[in-house]
Amino acid sequence: MKEDKVCEFNSFGLGFLVFLMLSFTLSLGSASTLTACQTLSSSGYYDLSQSITANATCFTVTADNVEIDCKGYKIDYGINGVNSGMGIDATDGSNTHTNLTVRNCIIVKPRVNGTTGYGIRLTRFSNSFIVNNTIKTNGSNSNYGMLLTTNSQ
User: Fold this and answer.
1) 26, 47, 85, 104: least surrounded by Cβ within 10 Å?
2) Does an H or E element contain 130, and which?
3) pTM, full prediction
């Protein structure tokens, strides 16, 4: 279970040493373990327990408040050489979303053929964090490690 400290402070006053410590924890619940590529349409903390592969796109994110922790495991995407394969695609049509974190991933497109592939693509996804990832792309043209478009940040 993942816990984050939200508030902690000490109070001193009136010449007396008064120690007051408040500590609140916010439980994010246990992680949902991912063992295959899929659409993540619910908020939550997701982690990988093994390396995974996808013929085209591996993860499509269509929800707010999603954290993906690969824990150092690898995502191979576009392995059949299709066009437009993505490792992680945070795109949901014209809908806007917020709070995506992707951490500790090794995202690889191993095939040389196929165009317009991205390791991570964010479209209309704000307040996002991409932390401690390795991204390797391959392909004939328009292949990028990350692509942030349309008000993504």
Assistant:
1) 26
2) strand 129-131
3) 0.78
Distance CA 57, CA 62 (A): 14
Nearest residue to 52 (alpha-carbon basis) of 23, 87, 24: 87
pLDDT digits (tens, 9 = 90+) for 46-71: 999 999 999 999 999 999 999 999 99
Distance (Å, whole) CA 108 – CA 85: 11
What is the residue type of 89? D
CA-derived radius of gyration, the chain: 19
Supply φ then ψ for residue 99, to 5 degrees. 65, 70
CB 59 within 8 A of CB 87: yes
In whole angstroms, how far apart are CA 35 and each of 6, 44, 81, 137?
31, 16, 22, 22
For residue 136, what are its two tokens? 């390797």
